[in-house]
Amino acid sequence: MHLIDGLLEVRSCSLVGLEKNTGKTVTLNYLLRHLPSCVRVGVTSIGLDGETRDQVVGTEKPEIVLRSGSLFGTTEKHYRQRKMVSELLDVSDIPTALGRLVTARVVVTGKVIIAGPGSTELLKRWMRTVEKEVDLILVDGALSRMSLASPTVSEGMILATGAAYSANIDTLVRKTAYVVHLINLPLWDGNDDDCICVSGAVTDRVLDKIMNDKDAKGKRLLIPDFTKVFADPMVWHRFEQQHPVVVRQRSRLLGLTVNPTAPNGMVLDSDILCKRLTEATGLPAVDLMRNS
Amino acid sequence: MQLNEAILEPLCMRYVVDELPVQSGVARRMLLDREAMQSAGDIESYYARLRTYTEAVKPVCNDVARRNLQFRLQGLKDIRTTLEHLSAGATLDDIELFEVKHLAILYGEVCKQMELLSLPLEPLRMEEVIHILDPDGMRIATFYVYDSYSERLRTLRKQLELNPADEQVFVAVQEEELRIRRELSGSLREYAEDLKRGLLLLADTDILLAQAVQAKEWNLCLPSVSKDGRLILKEMWNPEVQASLHERHKEYQRNSIQLGEEPTVLTGSNMGGKTIVLRTVGLCQMLFLFGFGIPAQEAELPVREKVYCTMSDEQSVTEGLSSFAAEIKSLNRIVEACRRGENLLALIDEPARTTNPVEGTALVSSLIDVLRRTHRSVLMVTHYTIDAHHCPCLRVRGLQDGRMDYSLIEAREGEVPHEALRIAETLGIDAEWLSAAHKVINSTAQ
After folding, report:
1. CATH 1.10.1420.10 occupies which residues in chain B?
2. N or C end of chain B: smaller count of CB under 10 Å?
């Protein structure tokens, strides 16, 4: 399975859902189940996630199953509610919405709800404290928290998309392909002459300004990483026709997972969706619900 | 008065407290909650303890042990609520038991480091606590309800391992864990007071060590307690002002001052550092009441219940008062407090400066007169030429060969320096304006 193969090559990976209910937790459980048992895993999430009930839409959300030996970071509240035997390693000063962040090691396989620190800075702090203890850190992302996918946080990323993002296959494929395209923007070659550097948010206005600047004509645009792009796909497309874009840092997109079911019950054809997405992105897209 | 109130006064106190290298959040909270010491005995014994710490951190050979100790103290957590639960007879959960074990192990580790510094900590029954929470004798600060607590638990967990999805076994495991936790909490209850005392002592150690390290690194002195109400500060300085001067590669000129239980008037040219003197005296008095090292070569300070200060530009926007009204009201509070015989130090910066000099002078000379009769310790800065022959008068030496000399000297009665024009000149003001000002002065003199 290419997702697992890719995971074995990175020290950390974040799971990012393009929308709530795009199947991140399913993906996480799938990975945890299929990783070779010799790989010591550390798991946490950013912000409130992994609740038994989805707080936004109210759909059922599965807990995360962790094998013995795995490390995890979650809130005090969720630690008390765990359904597993685990050894408490640390109670940190890192605050979360539901008490302090605790770190524990699974003694007997079981289920736990994972809810980690609320900011990328605190997340990075937690990752630093456990990185020596584990081979791979998996970070479950929260609702459209693209900042988490920043290469400054994790080496690799897995993108979850699905009917919850758009009910129309064409729109869904187009929007997902746009994000994949941004994630895969080429790395800057270090050649500084004639680059336009933007370090903050790249918005439509910024792009328009560059396009209207005669001196900037044909020059490359250099941005820190794809999470800084907040532009409309149309504007972005037009911009890229005139200016190649490069990034300082890039995370490895390890794969694309698909949840064809929307929270309102509408189901897209899984085969067609996966095929269309694979064609549009050049990455194998899989529906893990069906494959497992 | 608590320290968290004291740092709100305009005395640069916050800077000293913020820079104090306290390692744990709980020690910082306890420090900020401390009340100002109110008896000579308390203050003397506090400084005697601090002295043992400053002696211990002085030799370079103790640096490693000291740093190890500081590192350990970083791990101190505020588990007062957990310990209250324990005393109250609650069954602690995993997280709480972890915290208790963590504290007990930390106490032992800190004790060892403290012995290296010849600062023995009070022996408490922490080994017993560790023994209860570490049945396998691993001496690591992690915790769960270990298999070795009960054969039944071990068996149940083996079953669960074989079939993690078995809800019934899981519930049985949880019940057994609960039973054990109840038992553990019961055995630990006996040690609740030791644990509370331990937490307090560690926080206390953290604070004293931080004060000792600050005293060493900043070259602060440990003061003696004045018995006759006299305040003596030799070669004092203001750490915050000094730090900002050093940033601009400038030197801080230290100065000395003595105050008795009477008003002392301080005059001096503009930019002569009078307000800094006022703040620094107030700062030293406050630091003394909270047991800090004093930024002076030598210090002798009296116990004071309260430090009042009125600083320039006290404008009470919220109360809708003008700066004059706000100032007069706060001066009046000082007069009332002196009349009541409060044991205080009052610091008054240029009273009535925002009104016309005729009435201003009248208000200030009468203020000194009124305060003098209350025999309270007051330091007042003024620009007005006033009749203060009954009080000690100091002045900043002022411009000497074009350079400001900030040292304090005794002033002759009613003498107010007239250096404003010279200072304005050094500031490079408009030449025409300056010469016009000189003309006005010359004409009034004639």
Report:
1. 3-210
2. C
Domain limits, CATH 3.40.50.300, in chain B: 220-415
pLDDT tens digits for range B40-71: 999 999 999 999 999 999 998 999 999 999 99
pLDDT score for B363: 86
| In CATH, B220-415 is 3.40.50.300 | yes
Mean pLDDT, chain B, rounded, equals 89
* Secondary structure class of A144 (helix, strand, coil): coil
Summarize pLDDT for B355-375 with one digit per residue, the tens. 787 888 888 888 888 888 888
pLDDT at A194 (0 to 100): 77
CATH level 3 topology of A2-181+251-291: Rossmann fold (3.40.50)
Q: Tell me the torsion sign for CA atoms B106, B107, B113, B117.
A: positive
pLDDT of residue B417: 63
Q: Alpha helix (H) ranges present in A131-232? A: 169-183, 204-212
Distance CA A264, CA A262 (A): 5
Q: Return the structure tokens found at A235.
A: 């504007």
Answer positive or negative: Cα dihedral of B64, B76, B37, B118: negative
Q: What is the pTM of this model?
A: 0.81
Distance CA A90, CA B236 (A): 45
**ipTM reported for the complex, 2 dp:** 0.77
Cross-chain Cβ contact B94/A88 below 8 Å: yes
Q: What CATH architecture is B3-210? A: Orthogonal Bundle (1.10)
* Contact map slice: A 72-101 vs B, CB within 8 A: 76, 79-80, 83-91, 93
Of B99, B161, B173, the CB nearest to A91: B99
Q: Mean pLDDT highest for which of A84-98, A136-150, A239-253, B174-188?
A: B174-188
Residue-level pLDDT at A146: 62
- Shortest alpha-carbon distance between residue A232 and chain B (Å): 46
pLDDT category, B216, cuts 50, 70, 90?
very high
**How would you list the strands of the sheet with B255-259, edge to edge?**
B224-225, B298-301, B231-236, B255-259
| Tokens standing for residue B304 | 């004071």
Contacts of B332 (CB under 8 A, 6+ apart): none
Give A276's pLDDT tier (boundaries 50, 70, 90).
very high
Flag if B94 and A109 touch (Cβ within 8 Å). no
Cβ <8 Å between A87 and B142:
yes
Q: How would you list the strands of the sheet with A245-247, edge to edge?
A: A195-197, A220-223, A245-247
Instruction: Provide, as residue numbers in chain B, all residues whose Cβ is less than 8 Å from the Cβ of A37.
Output: none
Could you tell me which of B392, B355, B80, B27 has the C-alpha nearest to residue B203? B27
Chain A interface includes B20 (CB < 8 A): no
